[in-house]
């Protein structure tokens, strides 16, 4: 008798059988404050193996999600261009199989490598406490503090939506406004009754790539992140945003970034659960409208 494999959710499907492919991208070379997100893929996997397949609260069997786990990619620490190339190649291979990539960071810059792999660029939705819109940080254009600007250069700034922002320099905020970036700051999230309708409207009928920076959550709930920022969403509120996004758009990829497990052992557990809930939300939506594999 052997124990179950050390894969996300103990899944053993092949890429050909799957609808979702999990990959770990343990790159954290530009983390500017608390480093260590390279350890997140393993910590999230470990947590994912202990999550019950049946979700009582949503009456959904997570085992119905056709997930494969391809392991971690080889990153080149300290050398982002090479890491981005390997990420792009890996994601291209997943997309060739018509499978949705689910990337576990690592720091936020990994999202840039993933987006490069899409020939037809998606609409990029990011949940993040930070705007990450600097042109360079410490003379590094591929710092995680610049990731939204770099991705905007790929997909077009009007094809992005940042939700939950509550930190950024005045220069970044003004630059984002000038570029035409859609962003909804945390004040608006808290004080507007119609913010979920607004989000549904913005992403309506679009192919959405979703990037979740764990620091969009209140650090009281998710302490294990690189740059904790006071305030933020509760887990329950975040599920509301997922519903708003999934009710009107199509998911074509997701990443979860910036978890630093050494600061808190609960955050990767919440991260693993979040991945399942994202896939559940989009699975329900696609069952209604697409009837895919
Ligand atoms: Mn952030």
Give an overview in words.
With about 290 residues, the protein is an alpha/beta fold. The protein contains nine helices and ten strands. The protein has helices at about 40-50, 80-95, 110-115, 145-155, 170-180, 185-190, 195-205, 235-245, 265-290; strands spanning about 20-25, 55, 60, 65-70, 100-105, 125, 160-165, 180-185, 205-215, 250-255. Helix 2 (about 80-95) crosses helix 3. The model has no long low-confidence stretch (mean pLDDT about 95). Bound molecules: manganese (II) ion. Manganese (II) ion (MN) binds near residues 128 and 213.
Could you give a short description of this structure?
The protein has 293 residues and is α/β, with parallel strands linked by helices. It has nine helices and ten strands. The chain has a single domain, classed as Arginase, Chain A, CATH 3.40.800.10.
Blueprint of the fold:
Blueprint: E1 20-25, H1 40-48, E2 54-55, E3 60-61, E4 67-72, H2 80-96, E5 100-105, H3 110-116, E6 123-127, H4 147-155, E7 160-165, H5 170-179, E8 182-185, H6 186-191, H7 195-203, E9 207-213, H8 235-246, E10 250-257, H9 267-289
Parallel strand pairs: 1-4, 1-5, 5-10, 6-7, 6-9, 7-8, 9-10
Antiparallel strand pairs: 2-3
Helix pairs in contact: 1-9, 2-3, 3-4, 7-8, 8-9
The structure holds manganese (II) ion (MN).
């Amino acid at each position: 008798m052997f124990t179950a494999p050390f894969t996300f959710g103990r899944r053993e499907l092949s890429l050909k059988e799957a609808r979702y492919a999990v990959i770990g991208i343990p790159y954290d070379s530009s983390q500017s404050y608390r480093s260590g997100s390279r350890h997140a893929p393993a910590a999230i996997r470990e947590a994912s193996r202990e999550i019950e397949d049946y979700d009582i609260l949503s009456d959904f069997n997570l085992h119905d999600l056709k997930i494969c786990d391809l392991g971690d990619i080889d990153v080149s620490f300290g050398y982002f261009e090479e890491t981005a190339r390997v990420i792009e190649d890996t994601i291209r291979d997943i997309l060739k199989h018509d499978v949705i990539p689910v990337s576990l960071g690592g720091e936020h810059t990994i999202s840039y490598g993933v987006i490069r792999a899409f020939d037809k660029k998606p609409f990029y939705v990011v949940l993040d406490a930070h705007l990450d819109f600097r042109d360079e940080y410490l003379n590094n254009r591929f710092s995680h503090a610049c990731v939204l600007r770099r991705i905007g250069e790929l997909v077009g700034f009007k094809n992005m939506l940042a939700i939950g922002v509550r930190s950024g320099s005045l220069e970044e905020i003004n630059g984002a406004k000038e570029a035409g970036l859609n962003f909804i700051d945390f004040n608006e999230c808290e004080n507007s009754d119609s913010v979920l309708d607004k989000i549904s409207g913005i992403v309506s009928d679009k192919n959405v790539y979703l990037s979740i920076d764990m620091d969009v959550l209140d650090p009281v709930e998710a302490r294990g992140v690189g740059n904790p920022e006071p305030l933020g969403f509760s887990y329950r509120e975040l599920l509301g945003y997922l519903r708003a996004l999934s009710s009107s758009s199509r998911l074509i990829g997701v990443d979860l970034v910036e978890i630093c497990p050494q600061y808190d052992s609960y955050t990767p557990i919440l991260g693993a659960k979040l991945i399942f809930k994202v896939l559940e939300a989009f699975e329900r939506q696609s069952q209604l409208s697409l009837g895919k594999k």
